[in-house]
Design brief:
single chain, eight-stranded mixed sheet, globular, 12 helices, alpha/beta
Length: 270
């Protein structure tokens, strides 16, 4: 059974769950989500691992801290690990959570045995992506977060999945549209400012995992595949029917691959 814990960081309450036992694994959710996005994955992984699953600052039950840059949130994740009594772990981040993971790997490489990018990228935003985020900020400010997320979240799924599973898509939208506008805007601003971190992929000494959606419009597959040769040891899974939410669209395949990566990482030297 998952235990809910909180700690105070910069006068804000940061919420996280702990479950299972074994080698520690931290799972970080993405933009416009919270820790619940891992609900289908956690019951499998917690059989063999100790899971630490936080709500990032400004998401879920966690308050919005002053610094929600990728580096700022990485510092908060270090405090969560300290609070949980974890010295080293494997860290896996979905989308924006992957950007936080890369920042953590740059700041605290000694705390990581391995890390994974789940529909995420080490590249900085290009000008086209920055322009899209600016349009998103303008839309949020004019129309509110619910209308923005209703549209954005639907487009995270592949067209094939949307057609075959409309109820699942609608459930995801219903669960993740009640989100503070201020958090979404500040996340977008922070993501636009994050640097290229391909150097982290090259220099990290442990294994690195990439889970990639063939139909991912948010983090295109070809961009991630360009990065897969950079780590010393890379685990690569291309999901042939997924957009940006493989943990839902191809749950069994992505969870099995993630579990194999974590098992191998736990057995490798620290």
């Amino acid at each position: 059974m998952a235990m809910q814990r909180t700690l105070m960081v910069n006068n804000q309450s940061i919420s996280y769950q702990v479950s299972g036992s074994g080698s520690a694994v931290m799972l970080l959710h993405g933009f416009g989500e919270d820790s619940r996005v891992w609900e289908g994955v956690a019951p499998v992984l917690e059989k063999n691992f100790r899971l630490i699953i936080p709500d990032l600052p400004g998401s879920g039950q966690s308050g919005l801290t002053d610094d929600v840059s990728m580096e700022g949130m990485a510092h908060v994740m270090r405090q969560v690990l300290d609070d949980a009594g974890v010295d080293t772990c494997a860290m896996v981040g979905h989308s924006m959570g992957g950007y936080v993971t890369l920042a953590f790997a740059e700041l605290y490489p000694q705390r990581l045995k391995a890390f994974g990018l789940f529909h995420s990228s080490a590249y900085a935003d290009g000008e086209e992506k920055k322009a899209a985020r600016r349009r998103g900020i303008a839309f949020i400010r004019e129309n509110g977060p619910v209308k923005f997320l209703e549209q954005a979240n639907r487009n995270l799924f592949s067209e094939e999945f949307r057609k075959k599973n409309p109820a699942v898509v609608q459930d995801f939208i219903d669960r993740f549209t009640n989100f503070p506008a201020q958090s979404l805007v500040r996340y977008y601003e922070a993501m636009m400012q994050r640097p290229d971190r391909t150097r982290v992929l090259r220099e990290f000494t442990g294994p690195v995992m990439f889970i990639i959606g063939k139909y991912d419009n948010a983090v295109p597959a070809d961009q991630v595949l360009e990065q897969c040769h950079l780590p010393r040891l890379a685990y690569i899974q291309l999901l042939m029917h997924s957009g940006h939410l493989g943990m839902i669209e191809e749950a069994a395949t992505s969870t099995a691959f993630l579990e194999k990566f974590l098992v191998d990482s736990a057995l490798s030297p620290a």
